[in-house]
Amino acid sequence: MKQGTKVIVWFDEVTKDDIPLVGGKGANLGEMVHARIPVPPGFIVTADAYFKFLKTSKVIDEISGYLEGLDVNDSKKLQEISTIIKDKISSIPMPPDTVKEIKDAYHKLGQGLVAVRSSATAEDLPEASFAGQQRTFLNIQGEDAVVAAVQGCWSSLFEPRAIFYRQQQGFDHLKVGIAVPVQIMVQSEASGVLFTIEPLSNDTMKILIEAIYGLGEAIVSGEVTPDQYLLDKSKIRILDKQIHKQEWQLAKNTKAPAGELEQNIKINVPASRQTLQKITDEDIVALAKLGKTIENLYKTPQDIEWAKQGTQLFILQTRPVTTLKPKEEIKTAPKIEAQAILTGVAASPGIAVGKVRILPESSQINRIQNGDVLVAEMTTPDFVPAMKRAVAIVTDRGGRTAHAAIVSRELGIPCVVGTEVATKTLSDGQEITVDGSRGEVYAGRVAEPTKTAPVVVTQKRIKTKTKVYVNLAEPELAETVAARHVDGVGLLRAEFMIAQIGGHPRYMLHEGKGEQFMEMLARNITTFAKVFHPRPVVYRTTDFKTNEYRNLRGGDKYEEFEENPMLGYRGCSRYTRETEVFRLEVEAIKKVSQYYDNLYVMIPFVRFVDEMARIKRFLVAEGLYQFPNFKLWMMVEVPSNVFLIDKFIDVGIDGVSIGSNDLTQLILGIDRDNPKLAPQFDERNEAVLMAIEKVIKVSVSKGITSSICGQAPSVYPELTENLVKWGITSVSVSPDMIDEARRIIAAAEAKLSQT
């Protein structure tokens, strides 16, 4: 979006490129609104507003002094410093102009009940693992109460758990910002969490939904053990249901005093409803379809919070699943023959043996020693320092998406949740064996520990003739992904790097900053070329649409409004008309190519043969072909590419990559972001398969490289088998699917070798 200091932005003004301004949660809400996901409307108090508050209140040096030299493993000192900083932030008046803007936005939203949530700029990113670190205030009403809740979110950036997490992750405390989404409150009759994978086995072909009565905070915290519904992702078919009794639910306290921030109370669930399924089968299927749509939007498995009010389903937030492991690393634990003394929900695999340490509350986390089994009613983010010392975790309440379950999977330690009576049945100092794979607890040492690894980057290397490439965009991920068993980068997206630069390229040229733009882009591309060398890195030149370009600084001066940007002024058509802008990218590519010989260029959204010919002539004239290893690829996304593939190849390109998302939607005439049509968006459609087959076979006959971008080869093994059979050179997938794609390709190649 347009840059500059802003206090308030609305959901429809932001996208995933605005994380520095609105945090991960805020950016995801904006992204879903643009994709027409049913999200309750709202606005965001930006991180700019928070940083302005810190600066004007002159507390930065004071906070730094408190945090300097703090040992976050000293839980008592951590709690003490946290309280001091939070009290300081809460006691300082907010700047009057900020207060006015918040109140004006609240009035525009309708002045009704709202949810006020925290969205830290380092939260909900793929590399950030522990959710729920800052405060959430529900059922807030009244302009003064909303302002107080926003300031409460700001101060919660210094909760003990948040300070501990930032220290562990190496984040600078005062460079992490916090934005605050304010959203119309859904009075949830039922709510829950949806994983677009099965979180225990990491099965990407399953969807797991958890549901409870009332507000969803009880499920995320683990206070209530939810229903679990397991579905087949491809067919959206219910496979299994586990119904759990629920005796109470969270609801708005209608008698709470005005301005009170804690507005929720526990109310009893009528006895006749306690053992019933929480939502209908129709709702389960509808939620699964929404989850699949959101996963397709982000191209990676998602952890989604949802709610139901009346007949309407809402999505409250989504974040990437951070605990994915390759299937080869998920081993079945040996069956224990002893009699279990407790059973619950299997929440994190592995077997551990240790002494019980029961923690009634987080203030006692100092009691946990290395090698203990942490036992609690439930865990919260405040338990994390102790969880990192424990060998296993057992709780009375919670499901597979509760805090204890998510953190245990991240740490790679066994976990059993929802036992109901662990804190009453077990005793301090008692030795137990915890089987997190089966959800069972045994007295004494009855098996050998089999702890799982929290992060997997090495495994048995499967060899395939068909290369496995990866799709990337963020320079911060380059080194980590390069360490994986991957043959190169098949799609390096320019858009994320250009969004980080911030300015529209024509605006940068107008301001005399073209050289700066080029240097920053070259620096980012170098990050990928360096860590992947000598493996190829295929850089796709910018494919911003006009509405996306307009969001860059100065972009509103250069971009016209288009009714349908997807089919508008984008890709190759733009380069042939704006050569001075395209030259900035070419100069950046040349600069990198002087040092690294593994950088290729791929041109997106090419409509006409003569356009591709003009681009090649331009690249020759600009000197890119002076580099011996330089290759020019073209994205195949438009039906004309398929019909005229021979002529496009004859222009003199070295390879093609099939953009299956755009190609599918243009062949079928389906907006891939439309939830109503999402079930019919399928790369396995006969017309799409005919197009893909033709492109690959002609490429083989012409002796050029053929590839495909997207997750389809990982999701549909039968499609992958066809791709291999037709002679595709490589597939390029998102980082989480590298190993799964390699496994599927190996199986397809083995099957074909036997025919």
3D structure, described in words:
This protein is globular. It is built from 27 helices and 30 strands. The strands form 5 sheets. The protein has an 8-stranded mixed β-sheet with strand order 15-22-21-17-18-19-20-16. The chain is α/β, with parallel strands linked by helices and 755 residues long. Mean pLDDT is 86; it is low at 123-130, 327-331 and 453-460. Helix content is 36%, strand content 20%. Helix 4 (75-91) packs antiparallel against helix 6 (143-155) and helix 26 (717-726) packs across helix 27 (738-753).
What key phrases describe this protein's structure?
755 residues, globular, eight-stranded mixed β-sheet, eight-stranded parallel β-sheet, alpha/beta
Could you give a quick summary of the protein structure above?
The protein is α/β, with parallel strands linked by helices and 755 residues long. It is built from 27 helices and 30 strands.
* Averaged pLDDT: 86
The neighbouring-strand order within the major sheet is 15-22-21-17-18-19-20-16
Output the radius of gyration.
27 Å
Question: How would you classify the helix and strand content by structural class?
Answer: alpha/beta
Note the main sheet.
8 strands, mixed
- The gross shape turns out to be globular
User: Beta-strand percentage?
Assistant: 15-25%
| Helix share, percent | 25-40%
Which segments are poorly predicted (pLDDT under 50) over 5 or more consecutive residues? 123-130, 327-331, 453-460
Query: How many DSSP-defined strands?
Result: 30
Distance between the termini: 54 Å
**Count of individual helical segments:** 27
